[in-house]
Amino acid sequence: MTSFADLDLDPRVLKAVADAGYRQPTPIQADAIPYALEGRDVLGIAQTGTGKTASFTLPIITALLKGRARARMPRSLILCPTRELASQIADSLAVYSRHVRLSRALLIGGVSFAEQDQLITKGVDVLIATPGRLLDHFERGRLLLTGVQIMVVDEADRMLDMGFIPDIERIFRLTPFTRQTLFFSATMAPEITRITKEFLQNPARVEVAPQASMSENTAQHVCVFRAGHRSREAKEKRIVLRSLIREQGDRLTNGIVFCNRKSDVDIVARSLQVHGFSAQAIHGDLDQKQRMRVLDSFRNGDIVLLIASDVAARGLDIPNVSHIFNFDVPNHAENYVHRIGRTGRAGRSGSAFTICLSPRDDRDLSDVERLIKQAVPRLALPQSAEEEIRTLGSGGRGRPRSAARANRPSKSVADKPCSTADEGRKKRGQRSRQIRDARPAPPKAPDGPVQGMGSHVPDFLKTSFTKRPSSSP
What we know:
This protein is of the alpha/beta class. It contains 19 helices and 14 strands.
């Protein structure tokens, strides 16, 4: 087995790695670090949770030990799709560079521009940033990228999903052509392939697992059901989610619930809280302090369930997540891989449950199974969810509405209490019947022929020859 000592890293970096408790590199680290130390461009393809962060942070630290940073000109740049991932990388960099003098700065949204400007002005060796905030500083004239020696793009496929590809291309063009590029992604969409061909120079391709492969430690399940009525779909899905969570019992130590839409994140979180679950939402509308507070509570075990969208949860470094619940089948099959990758990490076992609302989600589920090249085992609808949904459909009376009406004892008008309005209507009805009954019966047509009219005269004409009574009573 390869050890970190075999990777030609600086002794001070090796000491920091040993202090962190790591002895052997993961496959992606063992394959990518030697190429990175040689100065080659690297195209790394690996599923989430395989140790990609150390694959580029350790070579960067070793390469930047010589030289010093200049004001507003970072020596290396690490691009991330989300604030959380950027913060995780900054924390890892702090651990691995504890025995060397290496300055760093974090440029993410939700933090004061002034504080970030102060760090950039002093000069930084490693700049970790999200694309939007990086370009904001550049357009303000507070940042120059002409001194970048090493550029890292992490979670490139997530950049594509979030619409960051134009920004990434612009940033590539702002950096020197002679830079070294380390490019990491879990999947390789056609647009990602185009970018690597345009901006990477003869990259060493490192692929430690087939694209979209799933961890063998993760047990997958999908619960397929049909809603009783379209207006109740979301509510019935929340019922199914709560039943799945309850069925896990003590096996559930913590879990992440994924929603496709940010609007559903808060709704699902509130629903779980109302029903007694320890749950909290995380999404882009929270400022950075709130987001970090929620994440810290989840890591510490103060929160059992974290409800998030794909954007908010991408890059979360939480190694001991026991369960993943997909409230929605992801619209993009690749997101299923990233969601499931949150559990079953570092040799631990995990479970993943997906709620599929048929027929709406059938196509998305088929895309997922086609991508991962396996059928996800079907799970029967929990009995508790079935009973609650049946009660919901009956209007809360525990049986269908038609049966409730059929078994309801009938009441006569006399049994019903009358209001003043009812009494008025009753009196008016009685008066109408009295007037109708007082009217005389219409005259009968005379029998036999009418003189001068022939033998075939209709009765209504015969009555015209009879004297009509007065219409008034």
